[in-house]
Amino acid sequence: MSSPLAVYKLIILYLLDKMGGEIAMDRLSSFLLEKGFVNFVSLLQTYAEIEQSGLVRSRVSGDRCYYSITEEGRQTLKMFRTDLSEEIRRQSDNFLRAEGAALRGDQSVRADCVPAEDGMYNAVLKVLEKGSPVLEIRIQVPDKSLAEEICRKWPSKNEKIYNSLIENLF
Description:
Number of domains: 2
Number of helices: 6
Shape: elongated
Strand order of the largest sheet: 1-3-2
Radius of gyration: 18 Å
CATH architecture of the largest domain: Orthogonal Bundle
Order of helices and strands: HEHHEEHHEEEH
Mean pLDDT: 89
CATH topology of the largest domain: Arc Repressor Mutant, subunit A
CATH superfamily of the largest domain: Winged helix-like DNA-binding domain superfamily/Winged helix DNA-binding domain
Distance between the termini: 60 Å
Strand content: 15-25%
Largest sheet: 3 strands, antiparallel
Structural class: alpha+beta
C-alpha cells in the first residue's frame, strides 16, 4: 500500500485527469479536507511536492491558484491508479459530478496580471469556451496592484461586461 502522501497525490492527479482541465486549489482543498482524506499541513506538503516533481502545473489568476495535470502526472497516475481504493474513486467522481458546472465555470473565465515592457502592467481578461477565447480584453495600467484588483473582480463581473459589450456592439 502507498504512503498517505502518495495517496493524496494520486487523488489530486485523479481529479485533474478526470476533469480534463484546471481545478482551483481552493476547490481541491475543500474536497480533500471535507472528506477527511488529508489534514491541512499534509495537504500543503502534497501541493509542494506534486508541483516540484512536475506532476502538475500551477497558474495564479487573481487571488486563486489553479492546477492542471502534466503528461508526467498522467503517466504516474496510470502506473499507480490501483493504489486508489474504489471508494476514493467513487467519492472523487461524485465530487466532479456535483461540482462540474462550477469547475467548468472556473475554467471558462481567466484573468492574468502580466508585466508590460514599459514598466506598466496588463490585466488580461478572458472568457473561454471549450478552451478557446470568445472574449479577450487587455487593459494596461500603471501598477501591479491595480492590475491585480482588475483581475480579482473579473470572475464576478465578466458576465455583465460581456453582455454589455454584445448589447452595445450588435
